[in-house]
Amino acid sequence: MATPREPRVHEPEQEAQDVPEPPAPTLRERKKAAAMRHIQQTALELFTEYGFDQVTIEQIAATAEVSPSSVYRYFGTKEGLVLYDEFDDRVLVGLSHYLRQGMSPWEATEAALDLVAEAHFVVEADATRERVRLFFDNPSVRSAAYLVVDNIVDEMAQMMADTGRWSFGQGRVLASAIIWPFVAAIKNWHEDTERPWIDHLEDAIATMKEMAGR
């Protein structure tokens, strides 16, 4: 059994330590996140028990005691119930904030991931691991994921372009160089769960930094 580690993505430089954290989510945002978390957790339990293909949106809604329209409004599709990550918004807000503070894309990404590392991969480790399993075990989820990743890449690219330090095209290249190693780290974790997730992530970051320095 792997020994738990402190869920820190990196040891920041002094300059990064001096940068204030982004604002916390509002009460409205927290209430929405709680409602979506309840629906998603219900869906994950049903997927685990009966299989992804056998469960319908209507069954999820009935079990979660919400309307099917609420499920569609929040998640769009059944695949979206697996792909939605409540921590993504926090990471993207943090990324935008740290980029505006002058950090490099990698520094900003590491600092943004630090905001959610413990909650995502320690407190919510079981749910995260089940979503990863469903992702890799179901082709329809993996297909839908490409569009999600593509949208996130462009959102990150726009954040970089908004700083005035890069064009949108350059931002898209940089964002892709960050996101796809992250996806690879998730797959490595899926295939080697004995090692903590944070080890796989740190390996991916170190590898990309080494390549960038060549």
List strands and helices in order, with pairings.
Blueprint: H1 14-17, H2 27-50, H3 57-64, H4 68-75, H5 78-83, H6 86-100, H7 105-114, H8 117-123, H9 125-137, H10 139-162, H11 168-191, H12 197-212
Helix pairs in contact: 2-3, 2-9, 3-4, 6-7, 6-10, 9-10, 10-11, 11-12
DNA-binding region: 56-75
Keywords: DNA-binding, Transcription, Transcription regulation
Domain HTH tetR-type: 33-93
Provide a descriptive summary of the structure in words.
This protein has 214 residues and is mainly α. The chain is built from twelve helices and no strands. The protein folds into two domains: 23-84, Homeodomain-like (Arc Repressor Mutant, subunit A), CATH 1.10.10; 85-214, Orthogonal Bundle (Tetracycline Repressor, domain 2), CATH 1.10.357. Helix 2 packs across helix 3 (57-64), helix 2 crosses helix 9 (125-137) and helix 6 (86-100) packs across helix 7 (105-114).
Tell me, what's the shape? globular
CA-to-CA gap between the ends?
36 Å
CATH architecture of the largest domain: Orthogonal Bundle
**Highest-level CATH class of the largest domain:** Mainly Alpha
Q: Strand count, sense and closure of the main sheet?
A: none
Order of helices and strands: HHHHHHHHHHHH
Helical content, roughly?
Answer: over 70%
